[in-house]
Amino acid sequence: MTRLSVVNLVRLGSRTASPLYRNPARALHTSVCMNSSHRKAGFKPEKVAVVTKTTRYEFEQQRYRYAGLTEEDLKHLLAMKGSSYSGLLERHKIHTNNVEHIVKSLRREGIDVRVVKRGEYDDEVVRWADAIISAGGDGTMLLVASKVLSKDKPVVGVNTDPERSEGHLCLPVRYTRAFPEALAKLFRGEFRWLWRQRIRLYLEGTGINPTPMDLHEQQLSLEQHSQAHRITITDSQRSNGTGILHESNSKPSLLPVRSLNEIFIGESLSSSTHRGISVHHRVKLKSFKQHVNLLLHRASYYEISVDDGPWEKQKSSGLSICTGTGSRAWSYNINKLAEQSVEEILKIGKSKTGFDIPLNREFVEKVTEEYIESLVFSPDDRHMFYSIREPIVNRVFSSSRQRGFASKVCVRSRCWDACMVVDGGTSFEFNDGAIATISMIEEDQLRTVVLEN
Amino acid sequence: MTRLSVVNLVRLGSRTASPLYRNPARALHTSVCMNSSHRKAGFKPEKVAVVTKTTRYEFEQQRYRYAGLTEEDLKHLLAMKGSSYSGLLERHKIHTNNVEHIVKSLRREGIDVRVVKRGEYDDEVVRWADAIISAGGDGTMLLVASKVLSKDKPVVGVNTDPERSEGHLCLPVRYTRAFPEALAKLFRGEFRWLWRQRIRLYLEGTGINPTPMDLHEQQLSLEQHSQAHRITITDSQRSNGTGILHESNSKPSLLPVRSLNEIFIGESLSSSTHRGISVHHRVKLKSFKQHVNLLLHRASYYEISVDDGPWEKQKSSGLSICTGTGSRAWSYNINKLAEQSVEEILKIGKSKTGFDIPLNREFVEKVTEEYIESLVFSPDDRHMFYSIREPIVNRVFSSSRQRGFASKVCVRSRCWDACMVVDGGTSFEFNDGAIATISMIEEDQLRTVVLEN
């Protein structure tokens, strides 16, 4: 198949072309590696959705407009808090200018563009588009990815505020103001597809779930608990004496999400109407609202089995299971060590060996760097990396390994009020008795772009 | 002063005796160290309050009684969740038996005892008692301590469920079933006072505080935000055009708490009515409630100054400032390292030195142990230990030291929805612009007992 015909196939729109396109593209990609006389197929979508973030300026504006304040009031309010109105406005302008640049560049190439705000982005937009551009930062990319469940729909991230946003999931920052260059490379095939592996979740055993509180030892008074907790018992159940015994959800159900970064499992910090009430109180001025929280630092209890291994009871601050993409995100922060800690370990180690090991700053930096690098892996690796955050080891609980790779992780909740959080943005209840099965399959990949330099 | 007269002074009740008692006891204690012919004054309180925890069994009972279930239903419900009714009942009985044992032992000595449930414990009980016994675990001790602001009122912890509770703050477990032995030692002076240093908090700059959300990049739709946020503007402010400019709380105010373990500062995970609503929904059966949370993993932004040093901007998962007592609690879990991590560092270090260092399991264990031991310090040390949890280091944020000792720590919040959490149980709003000054003074100590073995 010649390059021209592949390009034509693509221009028909990905729905028609994709089954055929996917294989040839990959075949071509592979053959580029083997034989440089074959050129990689270019990619020129006909319809592109550009999903934009909401800037803080827009948010503040909306919020205070709602509250009836003027723009002047907004300025003063922000100044009083030590924030800068002009700073917010500037960042907002940078973002909107960059979005405009992207949109113009696309339209100049005859591409049909829809600009969609975060709140308007939905399945219909995903179906319409041949490709989706995320115009914002990593958070916007996560949002965009969350509605793309197919591995065929390309998603490209552009970092619209490089000074404020890390943009790990976005194109290199130089393309932000030089987007036509990025487009040219796409059209010419000077890029490669990066199929980022994602995580899927099955959940079972969530039948009756009355959100009880953790009684561990910090407890609310019973009166407060009573108000906060209810279980739903139908009248028919009450009257026919069957009680509440039947399990409703006993088969594992596949959750309608795919995680691009990580799944995090842990006790959440609130869940009661009590806390809801205290929010209203907090808005009042001139008083310290000493609102009693439900053990903000609450340990998570669960059982874990890695790659169908033996179940192990654990107690910790939570459990992270990440992808290669996510190994640079929250998991990275959980696991990395500061030079200060590395230095202390090396010092103690040195003192116990009797060797005269030179422990200068450079040495410590190098060891730290190598340690940290071992925490990240490739986004297209079909492995997951699990980490136990702040494990609590005592007479009852132990952990054999604090972290490692896995193809499959099963977790059984023994928590009172926990969640499974997907990519830091969506959460599912995960309470006592529920079992999550966490794995990766090829079909769940997200198709993204890496531009060749 | 002879021993007898000191004991008589004490028996008058601590209110009368304490100014005089305190100094002689300490003087005597000091002189015991110097000259063993002086005996330490015994301690025999006339009135003792015993504050008891609520067991999980009691809690479940109350909750389901409220919901109209029978004891049989309770059994089945718990069984279905994989929990054990008989297990809960057994733990409950162990606790109540231990409480009875304590109370009987006290009364047998002619001491006036009031048994007070957690929910009934208040300032009046504290004033009434010459000494307070916490009958539960560490959580109950924290509760008991939280209402004792004076350094004169002795607090003693007894671990009523040694198999389930660590009881770091309690007497050694063997006294749980042999409480008369503990009492005998107290009467004979075979103990020492341990004045545990506690932390005090000043807060300022909390004027206007409309609990905004973090827009960082993961954002709710504006509609959801609008409902969740309100600021309070009085009508007179609106009409007289002064807007909302005046700072209400500009002088630092001393908060009415003393921290026995630690202060933890960080972004909280929810604060909106939205989440409050989702709680009600979560009680329904048979559906996955995909409730959108507000960035459960949200970085905390703040500025920190240690011992009046230069201000440093930081971004992390939160900041812990602990006492010597607390150095064995949450701070310990934040900072400790697993053998797996220590081993990896030593391996990398070894590979870079070229030395032939034997890295066997025993060596790794020893290094890990020494590292971990460096994290704890004495409860009567008038120092605080600050730790930055999961620091995020990038172009903008840096941290010179991840942890260290301090006499004073100032933190300025740049957070959107953060709290200062005291001993994992009480929290204060700590949002953008607020400044906390964190320190220790002698007057805030908690008087506890260490029995000599």
Largest sheet of chain A, if any? 6 strands, antiparallel
Estimated helix fraction of chain A = 25-40%
What is the gyration radius of chain A calculated from CA atoms? 26 Å
Oligomer: homodimer
What can you tell me about this protein's structure?
2 copies of one chain form a homodimer. By secondary structure, chain A is an alpha+beta fold. Chain A has helices spanning 3-11, 14-34, 56-66, 71-80, 85-108, 123-128, 138-146, 179-188, 222-228, 235-239, 273-282, 330-335, 339-353, 361-373, and strands spanning 47-52, 112-117, 131-136, 155-159, 191-196, 200-204, 253-254, 262-267, 291-292, 300-306, 312-316, 318-322, 384-389, 403-406, 408-413, 418-422, 426-429, 435-439, 446-451. Chains A and B meet through α3, α4, α7, α9 and α11 of A and α3, α4, α7, α9 and α11 of B.
What attributes does this structure have?
alpha+beta, homodimer, 453 residues, 6-stranded antiparallel β-sheet, 19 strands, disordered N terminus, 21% strand
Helix and strand topology:
The structure is a homodimer of 453-residue chains.
Chain A: H1 3-11, H2 14-34, E1 47-52, H3 56-66, H4 71-80, H5 85-108, E2 112-117, H6 123-128, E3 131-136, H7 138-146, E4 155-159, H8 179-188, E5 191-196, E6 200-204, H9 222-228, H10 235-239, E7 253-254, E8 262-267, H11 273-282, E9 291-292, E10 300-306, E11 312-316, E12 318-322, H12 330-335, H13 339-353, H14 361-373, E13 384-389, E14 403-406, E15 408-413, E16 418-422, E17 426-429, E18 435-439, E19 446-451
Helix pairs in contact in A: 1-2, 13-14
